[in-house]
Amino acid sequence: MSEDADDLGTAGAGDPAPAEVGANWAAGRRNRLLLRRALAGVLVVAAVVVLGLYVRTSRLTDDSDAFGPDLAPVMSLIAAENAAVEKEHPDDYVTVVAMFPMTGSLTDIALNRESIRHGLEGVHLAQVWRNRQPSSPPYVRVLVASDGPQDWEPTVEAVRDRTAEEHIVAVTGLGASTGATRGTVASLSASRYAMVSAVITSDELTGFPGLARVAALNSEQAQAGVVHARKVNPGLKAVVIKDLNPADSYVKTLARFYTGSLAGRERVMELSFDSSTRFSGTVLDVIAERVCNSGANTVLYAGRSEQLPALMQALSQRERCVRPGVTVITGDDASEMNRKVDLGMWGDTRIRLFYTALAHPASLALPGGGVLTAIRARFEGDDPDSFRRMFPHESLDDGMAIMHHDAMFVALETAKAFAREPDVPSPQDMANMLTSGTVTVEGASGPIRIVEGGARQTKEIPILQLNPDGTSAYSGRVTVTDGGPGRS
Questions:
Q1: CA 81: distance to chain centroid?
Q2: Which residues of the chain are modeled with pLDDT < 50?
Q3: Is residue 295 a contact partner of residue 266, using CB atoms and an 8 Å limit?
Q4: Helix (H, G, I), strand (E, B) or coil at 397
Q5: Where are the domains of the chain?
Q6: DSSP secondary structure string, 195-213?
Q7: Yes or no: domain 72-216+367-456 corresponds to CATH 3.30.470.10
Q8: pLDDT value of residue 56
């Protein structure tokens, strides 16, 4: 018999019900138990509601502990800035949601934690400088969210649900060119929600209503990479190595445009591997053998940085590649390797690795470059709110802080255009402006003009040489305009 049934039918041991009051006592006992059950039910419901609200709220957050201790310092700065805005300008602020893939393996998300941290620092830099402008509102709050493979769908739902109450006008960041990113963009685009991506480069992720992009496309990076390859090796003979991972739009489009950018005699052959399988490193070792026996002087690598060290090791162990000094050229994902390491990622330094970067701090000080003095000072000046002063131990070399600053800056300058309106612009109002062909911003990566449809018109693509210890050297830049041929 259950405990409840025992409570309803009998008094406890040693506490018999008096005969004269037995019926009334039993009824009262039953009523007390039912009341207790009802109160317990209310508490359970309340607990579920509170937990649900917490989960819902934590989808979009500025809680310093939300995404781990490595991100806590920058999250704390964002929270403090948000609190100041809410206190000082309670009726004159907008909110931008910064999305990063906080969940999933590196293969799934294609961004390491250092890149995410630098991206958040760039977002906060743009937030601070917008809020320090003496001219006019809107002031800006930032909420951070995860669009990783495990949580992008509930995050998108939370964005939609909380748009009005949080004054959300746009989403920025959005991660790399992966399946989860495509899902996020497609879902938000279905309601023409304003988005400004920082590092999406796949040519397949174009044409989504509401999406503006500040990064160079893979087609443009491929052109720039081939221009540099011809400069390094005038008699270009290239092998294209492509990753066949079906879930990765970045590698697919980069491979297609590497092949398309080569003249007939420049293309020696194409070889492929699949990074989604267990032993892709073994396949890359065999591929290296084929490359070194082919007479090629250049490898155009259309894959992710996670597998690149295996290829570089394999090439540098073969004399037929080392002696002539085979050059490897790849896309911006190699910036994930741009951090100092204790052990070299590959052996012989005669095997050189170049990559097309989305941004680099050398461009900030480049003579005749397109970065305004005021924007340069925002990063390298002595102002307490400069990047150098706020984050003195951080590097700009991977370009993530620069690109996420610029994406955020585009969103904020677009919101500023609605300052004369009586109400906060909706994400649909913002999307209409973003993709109208009228948005022009002086960014840290150079002048940014978002043309009709949301693409960036002119790109200055830096070329970096990455060393085995993770340090890099600036090797020039290639200008790409409207998808046309690059020039160095």
A1: 22
A2: 1-57
A3: no
A4: coil
A5: 3-56, 72-216+367-456, 219-357+464-481
A6: EEESS---TTS---TTEEE
A7: no
A8: 35
Confidence at residue 460, expressed as pLDDT on a 0 to 100 scale? 85
Within this chain, domains 72-216+367-456 and 219-357+464-481 share the same CATH topology: yes
Per the CB < 8 A criterion, the answer to whether 315 and 291 are in contact is yes
- H or E stretch at 81: helix 72-88
> What integer pLDDT is reported at residue 208 of this predicted model?
95
CA angle (331 as vertex; 326, 333 as ends), nearest 5 = 115
The reported pLDDT for the residue numbered 482 is 61
Q: Residue 3's pLDDT is what?
A: 37
- For residue 36 the two structure tokens come to 């207790």
Asked if residues 468 and 346 have their Cβ atoms less than 8 Å apart, the reply is yes
CB atoms within 10 A of CB 188: 26
| DSSP string computed for 301-349 | EES-TTTHHHHHHHHHT-HHHHTTT-EEEE-GGGGGG-S--SS-SSS-T
pLDDT for res 114: 94
Per residue in 404-417, pLDDT tens? 999 999 999 999 99
- Measure the CA angle with vertex 70, ends 69 and 73; round to 5°: 80
Q: Which amino acid is at 251?
A: V
Give dist(CA 322, CA 360) in Å, integer.
29
Q: What is the pLDDT of residue 367?
A: 63
Q: Work out the number of other CB atoms within 10 angstroms of the CB of residue 27.
A: 10
The confidence score (pLDDT) of residue 240 equals 98
- Dihedral sign for Cα atoms in the order 316, 319, 324, 329: negative
pLDDT at 48: 33
Q: Quick check: 101 and 115 in contact, CB under 8 A?
A: no
* Rounded Cα gap, residues 26 and 401, in angstroms: 71
| Architecture per CATH, 219-357+464-481 | 3-Layer(aba) Sandwich (3.40)
Q: What distance in Å separates the CA atoms of residue 425 and residue 195, rounded to the nearest whole number?
A: 14
Q: Which amino acid is at 46?
A: A
Per-residue confidence (pLDDT) for residue 329, from 0 to 100: 98
Amino acid identity at 100: F
Q: Let me know: does 125 contact 383? Beta carbons within 8 Å.
A: no
